[in-house]
Amino acid sequence: MVEEGKKAPAFILKDQDGKKVSLNDFKGKNVVLYFYPKDNTSGCTKEACNFRDEFPKFGKLKAVILGVSPDSVESHKNFAEKYNLPFTLLSDEKKKVLEKYGVWKEKNMYGRKYIGVERSTFIIDKNGKVQRIFRKVKVADHNKEVMEALKKLK
């Protein structure tokens, strides 16, 4: 299980352009690693657009944003283009990273149980340590919550 204060699990996934991206590529930067259920759904679109709208502020805090879902590279490409997302989306179709970070879970909607992504965000510092974990994220103002946590990093 991923814990605050511990090293973030390493990974390599393909981005929306099909290029391999590793967590190690971002050493020396703060990383906002957010996991979301599905491209082009209302909550996920709102969350992505909130991060997009505040993107320059994240840059000033030397933070990069990485969104991860089990959608395909093609789905991510369409989603990023449709909403003009300036950050990287990573495809985890095999759900290995989702499982590593403990966000691939049993969920319950309207009494129906199913396995899916628990909307979660991990703030990883310049040294690769997890500084903050947000689980069961509520989309409204989550970007502001993340920004406040980033401001507290040294």
Write up what this structure looks like:
The chain is an alpha+beta fold and 154 residues long. The strands form two sheets. The chain has a seven-stranded mixed β-sheet with strand order 2-1-5-4-3-8-9. The model has no long low-confidence stretch (mean pLDDT 94). The protein has helices spanning 42-53, 55-60, 73-82, 96-100, 142-151, and strands at residues 12-15, 20-22, 30-35, 63-69, 88-91, 104-109, 112-117, 120-124, 130-134. The protein has a single domain, classed as 3-Layer(aba) Sandwich (Glutaredoxin), CATH 3.40.30.10.
Quick rundown:
This protein has helices at 42-53, 55-60, 73-82, 96-100, 142-151; strands at residues 12-15, 20-22, 30-35, 63-69, 88-91, 104-109, 112-117, 120-124, 130-134. With 154 residues, it is an alpha+beta fold.
Helix/strand layout:
Elements: E1 12-15, E2 20-22, E3 30-35, H1 42-53, H2 55-60, E4 63-69, H3 73-82, E5 88-91, H4 96-100, E6 104-109, E7 112-117, E8 120-124, E9 130-134, H5 142-151
Parallel strand pairs: 3-4, 4-5
Antiparallel strand pairs: 1-2, 1-5, 3-8, 6-7, 8-9
